[in-house]
Amino acid sequence: MTTAQREEAGPTEFDTSMLAVISAGERPPRPSAVSAALTFGWRGLLKIKHVPEQLFDVTLTPILFTLMFTFIWGGAIEGSTGEYLQYILPGILVVTVTFTTVYSGVTMNTDLTKGVVDRFRSLPISRSAPLVGPLLADACRYVLAALVGLVVGLILGYDADGGVLGVIGALAVLVVFALGLAWGFTALGLVMKTPQGVMNFGFTLIFPLTFMSSAFVDPETMPDGLQAVVEQNPFTRVVTATRGLLEGTASWGDVGIVVGFAALLTAIFVPLTIRLYRTKA
Amino acid sequence: MTSNDNLAIEAAGLVRCFGETRAVDGLDLSVQKGAVYGVLGPNGAGKTTTIRILATLLRPDSGSARVLGHDVVSEADAVRGQVSLTGQLASVDEDLTGRENLILIGRLLGFPRARAKSRASELLEAFGLADAQNKQVKNYSGGMRRRIDIAASFVVTPQLMFLDEPTTGLDPRSRNQVWEIIRSLAAQGTTVLLTTQYLDEADQLAGRIAVVDHGKVIAEGTPSELKASVGSGAVHVRLMRPDCRERARDLLAQALAAPVHLEADPTALSARVSEPERVPNAMAELERADIPVAEFALGQPSLDEVFLALTGRPAVDQTEEEGEETEEEEAAA
């Protein structure tokens, strides 16, 4: 019975060619960590190409925020939309880039739940490459989100007195800060059960933190207690540095504190994330 | 544990718990190089956990395992360089095309860009996926997914391949294709560790089988040995005329010293035999009594019967297993 079935099945269309292909003994040398990370970055970019919906958030959020805050609240808060735009544009850039970092965790969690992480973890590659690589593609998203917001702002009449250098500096600070934050969300993505959970938890965390900063209104108009909190909020520092760079008034201290904060996040979350990725599932 | 050069896998006393559940509970395994080895058991028996430990994705809580001579914990990277894994979930990126997935793996394994591309083309052609190479994997059929997944495991030819339930959920045609692939792998000398809950599949493909239940190996051997351990098999008899059946039953029951069942077919009878040497005499008795026989067959018991005999319950026991599996997955998540 068994033998008969085997003979009936016979050779299939891919039987003969397959033997040669699967028995190829070619074994390339193991790639460097940098090369593996770049490959993961390439994968991230391919995913943007195949799932362009991913870019909706990145492009629509800065446009909507800039328009809504400027025209709906501008008159009430600053007395004129033009002046308010001048105040909030840097804040909007910080908020939209921060929102984008949550997706680093969502992407990681999606990979985990789909099973593709098993494949990566069973390959003889550097431990950090699957984690660093996606962030390279994410950095492109941060730049894109910030640029969209900036262009909308410039069209509406924002004065970037810091000039081209100021804009480049502001983008750099935003990306550095966002990358630090993204490590935190990647760790979250490895802990939570569903991508939806990562998203909900992430935004629940991000909303109060970004709104309780100097992004949208001058802290001096707030009650004393809150004002003290807002001034200590790291997001306030990021807004201050971004605003300073765009307007050409930033000090090295403003920038240094943001870089230091990003370094702290990285130092905490990189080892944790690598460990979680190793031991997870 | 001493290392044996002929063994692809040697595992001793593996234990892995998820919370209260002992998913793998003192499992021993030794698999010869170049063989297709089947790990057979129902859902929740610990098959997937075992494979994940052997493929270095999970650390055992206790016990040890060597894969191709390397310890799965202390020499995990050496193991990873020589094995590949095809899991129950498609272990490829569903958002990318089949071609991009293979190039991705090729690059990660160290192929230069051009060679990664040409290797992808070779594999797509060989696995019958050339037409679908530029489609996203999420649009593939179940059978195509399984093939791209196996192809991804062959970007660099592994010495040992783990296939975790490779045909679960496939239609019969796709299942046959996967079987053909596994036979080709075996033909070119790759060691294959295959888990399955289909007894038929283990019987068809594997040279040796370990039957796993509740995280332990409860029986091990060739398919024939396993069947023999349960009893010699069953006699199936079909008569030319239904009116002789009552007489035939009495004669057979006496000659075989075993209870005889009347089948739904009014000319058919069957009996489980524990003493096969009685069978020729039983056939002669029917002839002597002038009962015309259309068919007289001594068959080996099916692996379903093996499982029932070993565990006291059928291999597929839906309610209990689904519960266990969920528990295991949740604990792992």
Task: Give structural notes.
The complex is a heterodimer of chains A (281) and B (333). Chain A is an all-alpha fold and 281 residues long. Chain A has one domain (32-279). Chain A has helices spanning 2-9, 15-22, 33-50, 54-78, 81-114, 116-121, 129-156, 163-191, 195-211, 224-232, 234-247, 252-279. Chain A is elongated and about 80 Å long. Chain B has 333 residues and is α/β, with parallel strands linked by helices. Chain B folds into two domains: 7-228, Rossmann fold (3-Layer(aba) Sandwich), CATH 3.40.50.300; 232-300, Alpha-Beta Plaits. The longest helix of chain B is centred in the middle third of the chain and has 16 residues, at 172-187. Mean pLDDT of chain B is 85; it is low at 317-333. Chains A and B meet through α1, α2, α3 and α6 of A and β6, α3, α4 and α6 of B.
Keywords:
heterodimer, A: 281 residues, mainly alpha, 12 helices, 80% helix, 0% strand, disordered N terminus, B: 333 residues, alpha/beta, Rossmann fold, Alpha-Beta Plaits, 2 domains, six-stranded mixed β-sheet, four-stranded antiparallel β-sheet, 38% helix, 26% strand, disordered C terminus
Which helices and strands appear, and what pairs or packs with what?
The complex is a heterodimer of chains A (281) and B (333).
Chain A: H1 2-9, H2 15-22, H3 33-50, H4 54-78, H5 81-114, H6 116-121, H7 129-156, H8 163-191, H9 195-211, H10 224-232, H11 234-247, H12 252-279
Chain B: E1 7-18, E2 21-32, E3 36-40, H1 47-54, E4 62-67, E5 70-71, H2 76-80, E6 83-86, H3 98-108, H4 113-126, H5 142-152, E7 160-164, H6 172-187, E8 191-196, H7 199-205, E9 208-213, E10 216-221, H8 223-230, E11 233-239, H9 245-256, E12 260-262, E13 268-273, H10 279-288, E14 293-299, H11 303-311, H12 318-332
Parallel strand pairs in B: 3-8, 3-9, 6-7, 7-8
Antiparallel strand pairs in B: 1-2, 1-4, 4-5, 9-10, 11-13, 11-14, 12-13
Helix pairs in contact in B: 3-4, 5-6, 8-11, 9-10
